[in-house]
């Protein structure tokens, strides 16, 4: 299980389907939320992350980051 923004960022980097800018935006958003919300909890399995990447890479690049973050929330992973 990945439980920190750095874990997610490392997995995204290894996967290589997102641009460096998209990966940075996701990591920064998760880091900001962790620093500012004491109830923030991140728990994502690698299979779920791969499924999520399969979904968002079919989208327009302008919507990928927002879709990724929204889907994490929808699935109660953050």
TrEMBL record:
Pfam family, one: NSF_ATPase_lid
Domain NSF AAA+ ATPase lid, residue spans: 2-74
UniProt-listed InterPro entries: NSF_ATPase_lid
UniProt-recorded name of the protein: NSF AAA+ ATPase lid domain-containing protein
Species this chain originates from: Hymenolepis diminuta (Rat tapeworm)
Biological classification of the source: Eukaryota, Metazoa, Spiralia, Lophotrochozoa, Platyhelminthes
């Amino acid at each position: 299980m990945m439980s920190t923004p750095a874990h997610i960022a490392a997995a995204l980097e290894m996967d290589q389907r997102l641009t460096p800018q998209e990966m940075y935006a996701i990591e920064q958003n998760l880091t900001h939320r962790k620093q500012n919300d004491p109830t923030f909890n991140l728990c994502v399995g690698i299979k779920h992350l791969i499924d999520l990447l399969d979904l968002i890479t079919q989208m327009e690049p302008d919507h990928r980051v927002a879709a990724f973050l929204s889907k994490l929330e929808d699935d109660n992973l953050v």
